[in-house]
Design goal:
Length: 230
C-alpha cells in the first residue's frame, strides 16, 4: 500500500512543502523570501504535486509544522492544512517545529555525542527553544527563553550541545568561544523533516483533532503601531 504524505512548514520565514512516500522524501520545495507565505504556499503545493505527477486525491494525510514560530506564518499554514484535510477527508498530523528542527541534525549530534538545542527567533533576545538528547528525547520542554550567557554556560560545562536554527545567531556572540558549543546556523526549518517525522506519527495513528487543533504560539500575537506621518 502506498502512503503519500504532504507536509507544510510555515513557522519561520521559510515557506516549505514536501512530499513523502512510504517514509522516503520524493520532493521538497523551499522559498526564502521573507514572510510571503500567503502568496507562496498554495502555488508551491500545486507545483509539488504536479512535478511528482501525484494528485491531491491520492494523499494519505497532511502534516503541519505546529509551532512555535511566527504567529502569521502558523495561521497560514494551519489554515491551508485544515482546508486540505476537510476537502479531501484526510487526517491531520501535527509536528512540533522544534522537534522537526532537532530531528534535522540528529546524525551530527549522534556523531559528536551531543545534545540538541533548536532555536527559533522570537524577537529581541528571546527565542523559542527546547533541549533534546541525540535520540530526540526531550530533556527540557518547549519554552520562550531569554538568552543569557550564564544559562547556557552551565549546561555546556558537562555537555556538548548542537545549537541549530535562526535563533542561534543571537547566542553566538555570547558563546562563540566555548569549546562545547557547536553552531549550525545554515540549517533551516524545512518541510521534509516535518514530513519524515509526520510519517512516523502516521504509522502509529497519531493524529490531531482537526476540529479543535490550534498551533503552539507560546506568546500572544503582538502588533506594532504604525508611526504617525507628519
Amino acid at each position: 500500500m502506498i502512503t503519500n504524505l504532504l507536509a507544510i512548514e510555515t513557522a519561520t520565514e521559510t515557506c516549505s512543502v514536501a512530499l513523502v512516500q512510504n517514509g522516503e522524501v520524493l520532493a521538497n520545495i523551499s522559498y526564502f523570501q521573507g514572510r510571503q507565505h500567503s502568496k507562496l504556499l498554495i502555488p508551491i503545493i500545486k507545483q509539488l504535486v504536479e512535478n511528482q505527477n501525484i494528485s491531491l486525491q491520492s494523499l494519505s494525510a497532511i502534516a503541519i509544522s505546529s509551532g512555535p514560530g511566527s504567529y502569521t506564518g502558523l495561521r497560514i499554514g494551519v489554515s491551508a492544512a485544515k482546508g486540505l484535510c476537510f476537502g479531501l477527508n484526510l487526517p491531520l498530523i501535527a509536528v512540533s517545529t522544534l522537534d522537526s528542527l532537532a530531528f534535522s541534525v540528529t546524525p551530527i549530534a549522534l556523531k559528536m555525542n551531543a545534545l540538541i538545542c533548536p532555536m527559533i527567533d522570537a524577537r529581541r533576545m528571546e527565542v523559542y527553544t527546547a533541549l533534546y538528547n541525540n535520540n530526540l528525547e526531550i530533556i527540557q520542554s518547549i519554552q520562550a527563553q531569554i538568552l543569557t550567557q550564564e544559562y547556557y554556560t552551565n549546561l555546556l560545562e558537562t555537555n556538548k550541545i548542537v545549537f541549530v536554527g535562526d535563533g542561534t545567531l543571537k547566542l553566538i556572540p555570547l558563546l562563540q568561544t566555548h569549546p562545547n558549543a557547536i553552531f549550525l546556523t545554515d540549517t533551516i526549518c524545512e518541510a521534509k523533516y516535518t514530513a519524515l517525522l509526520g510519517y512516523q506519527y502516521y504509522i502509529k495513528n497519531q493524529f490531531a483533532d482537526i476540529q479543535i487543533f490550534e498551533p503552539m504560539y507560546l506568546k500572544d500575537f503582538a502588533t506594532t503601531t504604525p508611526k504617525q506621518k507628519l
